[in-house]
Specification:
The protein is mainly alpha-helical and 122 residues long. It has one domain. The chain is built from five helices and no strands. It is globular.
Amino acid sequence: MSKFVLMLIMFVLAEALLAFLFSVIAQLFYKKAGIDFKSILKGIIERLFLTIALSSDITSALTFFSALKLATRLRHEEPGGDHNKFNDYYLIGNLASVTMAIFYAYIYKNFDHLPLLMKLVS
């Protein structure tokens, strides 16, 4: 199995797990049942952008990403005035996304030095 195929499989599995976890978190915060595929797709694109940028040592992309997230967040108004609940949900989701992107970039950059991955490739 090639490095690319293994990374792709790991990415798909991790993203499926994240989609499940984010839907659980949404149910806890918003009592919202089901999976929001639009949000999942946006999250995947965000993590892919960050992973590519961090793997390419373009760390300023984190600042760019933060500015974009802040700009899209400024117009949000929470119904019922419960801003803290949304802010907590927003913060947890973004921290998880950035953490996963950093993890993906770490795996990509250190692939050849991780014994488990080397065994799977050979």
